[in-house]
Amino acid sequence: MSWQSFASASQKFADTHASLDAGIAPANAAPPTSGSSDVVAEARRYLGGNPTGRGRLWCAAFMNLVLQRSGHRGTGSDMARSFASYGQRVSGPQVGAIAVMSRRGGGHVGVVSGIDAKGNPIVVSGNSGHRVREAAYPRGRIYAYVVPTS
């Protein structure tokens, strides 16, 4: 291995681990798509609140609101699973991707804002403890990651 190859590999390793420690996507993760940081920023504006005014079952309504206010078309559905067939599928978590997950009694949806040290997506979602919250979710719960195409 040449010195340049070794230096490049070492830097990639350092970048990946520094990113994981900081709770953000590692350097070798798929790059955010155009406008994805706008989706995350828009979602974070509502942390701790409930911009939908609904009392229950509002995670998909929140995701649609965030998409609309960041210049994207949503699904128009109140069902979290509607996002599994939205936009373009991606193979894993990336900042700005929409994470569609299972939960007992239904589903849940939110936008990936980072990845924790264990590789679990950090997601901003509505109706998480009856408010918009940013939290890590077990990666095994996520059955689809999609990115907006419009």
Q: Which class in CATH terms?
A: Alpha Beta
Strand content: 15-25%
Instruction: Write down the overall mean pLDDT.
Output: 82
Structural class: alpha+beta
The CATH architecture: Alpha-Beta Complex
The strand line-up of the biggest sheet is 1-6-2-3-4-5
Give Rg in angstroms: 16 Å
| Integer tally of domains | 1
Helix content: 25-40%
Q: Which residues sit in consecutive blocks of at least 5 with pLDDT less than 50?
A: 1-34
- Could you say what the CATH topology is called? endopeptidase fold (from Nostoc punctiforme)
Q: Write down the secondary-structure element order.
A: HHHEEEEEE
Largest sheet: 6 strands, antiparallel
Properties at a glance:
150 residues; alpha+beta; endopeptidase fold (from Nostoc punctiforme); six-stranded antiparallel beta sheet; 3 helices; 23% strand
Overview of this protein structure:
The protein has 150 residues and is α+β, with helices and mostly antiparallel strands. The chain has a single domain, classed as Alpha-Beta Complex (endopeptidase fold (from Nostoc punctiforme)). It has 3 helices and 6 strands; from the N terminus they run αααββββββ. The chain has a 6-stranded antiparallel sheet. It is globular, with a radius of gyration of 16 Å.
Chain-wise SSE layout:
Layout: H1 3-22, H2 36-44, H3 59-69, E1 88-90, E2 98-103, E3 106-115, E4 121-125, E5 133-136, E6 142-147
Antiparallel strand pairs: 1-6, 2-3, 2-6, 3-4, 4-5
